[in-house]
Amino acid sequence: LATGPRQKSSIFYEIRTYDIKPPKMKDFVELVNKYFHLRTAHSELVGLWSAELGAMNKVVHIWKYEDFAHRTAVRHALANDKDWQGKFISAALPLVEKQHNEVAYLVPWCQIGKPPKEGGVYEWVTFQMKPGGPALWGEAFQAAINAHINKGYTKLIGVFHTEYGLLNTVHVIWWNESPDHRAVGRHSAHEDARVVAAVRDSVRFLESQQNMLLIPLPCSPLK
């Protein structure tokens, strides 16, 4: 039922979410900080975060691939990388409760942004849209996002829609200086008639919404 336009670029992003055993979160983060350079030697890491609010003991990371052949080659190289397997994977797997991955594309009207400075927080918002794809809800969704951007209530980092995983899912990443800065922006947006109108039009196509406040780990390119 996804009836949107054909994807023009072969570049896609793999979104990986790991639920870490509650007593082991500190150990997992220490492993990442110590050995994740072995993983980033093989392909581009966009961002790596731990959940602070909206979820607990959860790590989210995004990887960029040129195409599916590129991902296959990277996965093959990782399986044969003795340092990666021995130093990180063997130690990390006992700390992980479960793993989940999705393949997603950037929406055509969005490029991955950069925060104006380091030290802020990221809000990860997941929208489950009604079946039909961007041809059904794309314009209304874009208008709702732009209404927030145009007034400067928050900084947009990226908008992704799923290709593998639960379809008609859109992940939006926002950046704010702090949780309090985010709260002020949200209150202002709720009082902005243009934002309210755009959101009301978009939610006609919305099934559910969930958000998390994320903190970037030291090795994350997006900090």
From TrEMBL:
Gene Ontology CC annotations of this record: mitochondrion
Domain NIPSNAP: start-end pairs: 13-111, 122-221
Chain ranges passing through the membrane: none
Example GO BP: mitophagy
InterPro entries: Dimeric_a/b-barrel (IPR011008), NIPSNAP (IPR012577), NipSnap_domain (IPR051557)
Family the entry assigns: Belongs to the NipSnap family.
Name of the featured protein: NPS3A protein
